[in-house]
């Protein structure tokens, strides 16, 4: 057993090295060029997405949107950035100075890193040097991406804590609770992909999607990822940390000037990051979509063309983000956490077991018909059970509600210590006099109160 | 190590950009401080004094963080298993299902005891 395992590990090592072949051999100037390219691409994308979002949401609400700065308003976000740069930078008295200044930097820097591991295209030649259109790849690239993405939470958390004020503290706690909850569902949705791809390197995963996109054969994983990527980036309808009705501006309440802009920069880059990750893991990465990929012996899958497909896929996903924001109302906090912990995580775990079982059955030589038969029967049984249980559950709930309604107590306007008006349909037991000032019976005490106040004053 | 080294370039670029913007904005931005401006924001009233060291944090978040750690460890075990799935065969599958079951039991317990209720 041990020798077999050691043998396997040895082979795994060789395989891991093979998987990332073609990386780690670039000359330094190519690396510098790629870094700069990714950096500029991210900044431009951010500037573009902010205006794009405002324009799309405006259209959805029958407005025009920004149209003043630059051609058709496309330079609006640049102007906003410059304006924020010139604003007064306030560090509140109660704030922990060092952490307060570091927090926006901590949240912005990791956002830039994820794109280094995303494959933007196949091999291209830059000034005669053949290289892949990806900064670097490692055998554990996706794990590294998850690690980088979650270190951005420190920024939000520390920003909330260091402001020394109640609203930011609550906002910071909320966003960290939210991000870690949805990170679990997100990480679990990757397992099925690794199972099919047999690798964690991003270029390897794109390679293995040559025949079919994982979004099609692993649709449940894709759905879980889509939901959790919105939760992970704190975007509407899951933008609870910024729920202005409850927490003012959440963790960013005390921030001003460019530090405030840094959080927004990080948020938008993270949106681009998770979209790029979805493209890589589920939508075939830089590969041309189906009808195009068949043209001319795959000519659209070579050279610089793939960059176009990649960016197009990312833009479609970004549009989905904006679409969600334009159409859905914000979740309530408990509903949101319930969705993450009680729906997405158990569902993902069950899905992993199912996919593993199916894959195992295929590997062991069970025929497709047998698998379909077993899965069909299992699905039918499951559906019948869930239907019956939900039906019974509803009946029980209805009964409970009915009994609660029947046992309703007569309305008492002073129940909570403060007088409240009756709700529609309720009968007030004691008529509440709608007068300003003290009730008629308390003249005496009121006089003594006012006289006391008078003497104190 | 060659595979990881290029990331340093991005780290440097990102950090330089972030630090540069923060420093420049503090230098060129106006400075017209007054007492009210430096106070914490709290609906315009006198801010509530905050306890030194940030005070207490609601237990709910603590429980969420604990559960997160357990699941995160589970995921760390799931990833290599998924990558080597085809080579591990029936033994690997059964082992992982057992492991998942062991994690699911306390999860269900926490759920039933109301550890996953938020308000």
From TrEMBL, chain A:
Skewed-composition ranges (Basic and acidic residues): 443-457
Single GO term (MF): NADH dehydrogenase activity
EC number: 7.1.1.-
One Pfam family it belongs to: NADHdh
KW Transmembrane helix (keyword) present: yes
One GO-annotated biological process of the protein: aerobic respiration
Region annotated Disordered, chain positions: 399-457
Source organism superkingdom: Bacteria
Entry membrane topology: Multi-pass membrane protein
Catalytic activity: a quinone + NADH + 5 H(+)(in) = a quinol + NAD(+) + 4 H(+)(out)
Entry's transmembrane regions: 28-52, 98-120, 140-161, 182-206, 212-231, 260-283, 303-324, 336-358, 370-392
Key words of the record: Cell membrane, Membrane, NAD, Oxidoreductase, Quinone, Translocase, Transmembrane, Transmembrane helix, Ubiquinone
One CC-aspect GO term: plasma membrane
Cellular localization per UniProt: Cell membrane; Membrane
Database matches in PANTHER family: NADH DEHYDROGENASE SUBUNIT 1 (PTHR11432), NADH-UBIQUINONE OXIDOREDUCTASE CHAIN 1 (PTHR11432:SF3)
Quaternary organization: NDH-1 is composed of 14 different subunits. Subunits NuoA, H, J, K, L, M, N constitute the membrane sector of the complex.
The family this protein is said to belong to: Belongs to the complex I subunit 1 family.
Task performed by this protein: NDH-1 shuttles electrons from NADH, via FMN and iron-sulfur (Fe-S) centers, to quinones in the respiratory chain. The immediate electron acceptor for the enzyme in this species is believed to be ubiquinone. Couples the redox reaction to proton translocation (for every two electrons transferred, four hydrogen ions are translocated across the cytoplasmic membrane), and thus conserves the redox energy in a proton gradient. This subunit may bind ubiquinone.
Stored NCBIfam families: PRK06076.1-2 (NF004741), PRK06076.1-4 (NF004743)
Name assigned to this protein: NADH-quinone oxidoreductase subunit H
Native organism: Phytoactinopolyspora halophila
Primary gene name: nuoH
Automatic annotation (TrEMBL), chain B:
Keyword Kinase in record: no
Catalysed reaction equations from the record: a quinone + NADH + 5 H(+)(in) = a quinol + NAD(+) + 4 H(+)(out)
GO molecular function: NADH dehydrogenase (quinone) (non-electrogenic) activity; NADH dehydrogenase (ubiquinone) activity; quinone binding
InterPro entries reported in the protein's UniProt record: NAD(P)H_OxRDtase_bac/plastid, NADH_UbQ/plastoQ_OxRdtase_su3, NDAH_ubi_oxred_su3_sf
Keyword Cell membrane found: yes
Main location: membrane
Enzyme class: translocase
Listed EC numbers: 7.1.1.-
A UniProt-annotated Pfam family: Oxidored_q4
Membrane-spanning residues: 6-28, 61-82, 88-109
Membrane topology category: Multi-pass membrane protein
GO cellular component: NADH dehydrogenase complex; plasma membrane
Subcellular location: Cell membrane; Membrane
Keywords: Cell membrane, Membrane, NAD, Oxidoreductase, Quinone, Translocase, Transmembrane, Transmembrane helix, Transport
Stated family: Belongs to the complex I subunit 3 family.
Subunit structure: NDH-1 is composed of 14 different subunits. Subunits NuoA, H, J, K, L, M, N constitute the membrane sector of the complex.
Function: NDH-1 shuttles electrons from NADH, via FMN and iron-sulfur (Fe-S) centers, to quinones in the respiratory chain. The immediate electron acceptor for the enzyme in this species is believed to be a menaquinone. Couples the redox reaction to proton translocation (for every two electrons transferred, four hydrogen ions are translocated across the cytoplasmic membrane), and thus conserves the redox energy in a proton gradient.
Protein name: NADH-quinone oxidoreductase subunit A
Lineage of the organism: Bacteria, Bacillati, Actinomycetota, Actinomycetes, Jiangellales
